[in-house]
Amino acid sequence: MNKGIEMRRPSLTFAEAERNDKASKIRTAGQAVIVGSGVIHT
Asked: Looking at the whole model, is its pTM more than 0.70?
């Protein structure tokens, strides 16, 4: 994913998602700063 282009701070982030009957897994990679975290219960 390309992001930050409009604010003139371009960067590249990679994302991958997997899902099976019991769980979902999401992976991201790139330069970032954590601004929050959580768990989604369904």
From this structure: no
